[in-house]
User: What shape does this take?
Amino acid sequence: MTPYTVLILLVVAERGAELAVARRNGAWSRARGGLEHGAGHYPAMVLLHAALLLGCLVEPWAADRPFLPLLGWTALALALAAQGLRWWCILTLGPRWHTRVLIVPDLPLVASGPYRFLRHPNYLAVAVEGVALPLVHSAWMTALGFSLLNAALLTVRIRCENTALAPSRSLASPGAAL
Assistant: This one.
């Protein structure tokens, strides 16, 4: 097993941890009247993220992609930074973080942590990781394909999330981030 395969399997395990957190947080939100928005695009998101990880494993092997040290180490640093940003988002949102758009009515928007600086920092983490993780082992087709499809999906997702959060904006402090 190559070090890159181990890295991808570690990311798969991390995704399992995220799903466990999301499941727990989903129960918390639903118990407080949380409503899901945009459930129709969720299966596409799951499929796209699974395809990213599969592509990371298949493309370097099938296309005999080399490990290019300058690209690989830089991409690894970016992928790890993306993981750090993602977990900063998860910790900042606490039980309000989900993989779905689940909104608890009457809660103010979170304006701390990375949300002080960006409206959607978790999606920045996803975009960076979607480019960086495949490029650790020169899987440029996976990076490009994921990035294009992710851009289209995030257009739908962010619009959905902004619409779902719109009534809550009046409850948030001025300048609160989504």
The chain has one domain: 3-171.
